[in-house]
Amino acid sequence: MCGIVGYIGKADAASVLINGLRRLEYRGYDSAGLAILDDDRVMVTKAPGKVAVLKDKTRSSWAPELMQRASIGIAHTRWATHGPPTEANAHPHLDQSEEIALVHNGIIENYRALRARLEGKGHHFYSETDTEVLAHLIGDCDKGDLFQAVTDALHQVEGTFGIAVLSAREPDRIITARRGSPIVIGVGDGETIIASDASAIVAHTKRVIYLDDNDIAIVTGDSVEIRDLNNVPVTREIAELGIDAAAAEKGGFEHFMLKEIHEQPDALSNTIRGRLDLDLGSAVLSGMATSPRELAELSRVVLVGCGTSLHAGLVGEYAFEDMADVHAEVEQAAEFRYRNPLLGSRDFVVAISQSGETADTLAAVREARQKGAFVMSLCNVVGSTIARETGRGVYLHAGPEISVASTKAFTSQVAVLLMMALKLGRGRRVSRDEGIRFAREIESIPSLVSKVIAQSDRIEAIAKEYSANEHAFFIGRGPMYPVALEGALKLKEISYIHAEGYHAAELKHGPIALLQEGTPVIALAVDIPGKDKTLGNVEECRARGARILGIISEGDHETAEAMDDYIAIPRTDPLVSTVPAVVALQLFSYFVAKHRGCEIDQPRNLAKSVTVE
Ligand code: G6P
Question: Per-domain residue ranges for the chain?
Fold first, then answer.
């Protein structure tokens, strides 16, 4: 979604800001802009479209000397919420005096009332955005102290914000604040970088400060002073970023998505390393921070998340019930937060989020804590809001995921959920021998994934055959049902093919009406319990002219014959087989999208991290 970068230091601010915006491109956006200070003037350039367009526009409208002189500025990539992605709606926005510039992530919910009040005082607005209203409000509050003006304005707004503000009247500082939308401050050597995401900072410094909600900071080139909204100083630790700049490069791959698919054996090794106890047949997940007694007393596991993370949760549901003998349910985080869920201290709520910033998942965490449930998170981004708010959790250690379509985060989430189920199961009914068997299967996941990736050429050849279709159905049963959902999601996200995932048994209850000669049906027919019934469903589809692509188990010749095309994955435990199966579908979707000429890493309308409801 929207991205923020701010810079104050010795370097040419415009270049730093544009490079920072480039690092945030993966988040998804549709316009961009930046503001720098030149003496006592705020200079703004904005453009719909990509950062490259903004860069060209900046170069053609600003003299090179100006670019070199300016050493303070703020910049933004906007994912349209209030008003279309036009130049007028792009950030930064100026106040009435045109001396204050603001970039903003989040939503100001009471902007209409604030706008009407400011219009009554003679303010004129040029955009349809809530952000311009906040810029004017700050200007209206400014009586000679920008920090105080921002504080006063933020007291009047309802909603969420991550902001960076500069003023021509105070050219030595940027004010930044957050509520519900992340802000990270990079503390460099004589320079300070503000961003909504550490990936815009890592090229400059690894020393960062994460703001908490309602923190407001005065940032100069060599200092960061943080207060709360009541002007009381607060201390935030400087943390060390665990990522390096190279992780945010494509490293020779055509797309980040392909790179991240290929990274999965390593990412999964990092996720699993040190977390399996092969003697006890259990998992060592200190982040769960629960005693065996607490684990034994848990009555229910509730997994919450959105998108791909929700699908990982669905695999987890099977694992918890099968392995741990505990009632498990999965819920879309937005639904969970608003339906007044019944929760108690014996309920174990697991929030699953790659970014750790998804607004609905964060709200679900808060709701669960409010109700006294035991809450933990499963995040990839270290220091993210959900990870920090839950306090306990298990990091994925999958490395930065840049492609909007999630791949390695999903497989790492599943790996962690399997380990959690094992740990929980060993405190209940799973025997040591059974635990050791399952732990060994988990340990083998990276090599299973490598074997699927090794078939890339074959998968590409198959994908090419399917790339001209406009509809596709994915079907599966048991743990392959969530894999079918995730396969359909991947395909629609990046190839814009209308793809639906169904439980194989559900197809007859409606969707089968849509099958025509040649409609692709991707059947998860891995050799696990339920396969025969899925094969029955495959026959029903074939009888209606569908073209069947099977994801099957290695050596299962009989099943291969029931398919028009097939991709074979290595044999393993049914729960574990979800991982190689999904990797086959990731590659299939990737190659279909590639043959359709789609913009794979930044699909239209999608955002990497959805920080608004
Ligand atoms: C967006 C992304 C998806 C992701 C979902 C949840 O929709 O495009 O890839 O699965 O958000 O994100 P999270 O960071 O909470 O896992």
Answer: 2-248, 250-443, 450-603
Q: Report d(CA 170, CA 185) in Å as an integer.
A: 19
The CATH number of the domain covering residues in 250-443: 3.40.50.10490
For residue 333, give the ligand 1 atom closest to its CA: 15
State the pLDDT at residue 491. 98
Q: Which two tokens stand for residue 579?
A: 């991982």
Higher pLDDT, 299 or 91: 91
Q: How confident is the model at residue 65 (pLDDT cuts 50, 70, 90)?
A: confident
Q: Is 2 a catalytic residue?
A: yes
How would DSSP label each residue in 137-160? HHHHH-SS-HHHHHHHHHHH--B-
> Active-site residue 464, yes or no?
no
The residue type of 4 is I
Architecture of domain 450-603: 3-Layer(aba) Sandwich (3.40)
Contact 301, 405 (CB under 8 A): no
From 197, 384, 401, 609, the mutation candidate for ligand 1 (largest count of ligand atoms within 8 A of CB) is 609
Local structure of residue 180 (DSSP, 8 states): B
* Topology alike, domains 250-443 and 450-603: yes
- Ligand 1 proximal residues by C-beta, below 6 Å: 306-309, 353-355, 358, 361, 404, 406, 606-610
Model pTM? 0.82
CATH annotation of 2-248: 3.60.20.10
Between the alpha carbon of residue 298 and those of residues 292, 347, 426, the distances in Å are: 10, 6, 13
Confidence of residue 245 (pLDDT cuts 50, 70, 90): low
Residue 606 CA, closest ligand 1 atom number: 8
In angstroms, the CA 441 to CA 473 distance is 30
On whether the CB atoms of residues 29 and 77 are closer than 8 A, the answer is yes
The active-site residue, picked from 46, 57, 206, 608, is: 608
Residue with tokens 């930064």: 92
- Å from CA of 386 to ligand 1 middle: 13
pLDDT at 77: 95
Q: Ligand 1: which residue has its CA nearest to atom 7?
A: 307
Range in 77-86, 213-222, 455-464, 537-546 with the lowest mean pLDDT: 77-86
| From 2, 141, 306, 598, active-site residue | 2
From the CA of 607, give the closest atom in ligand 1: 8
Q: Which range is least confidently modeled, 91-100, 210-219, 241-250, 284-293? A: 241-250
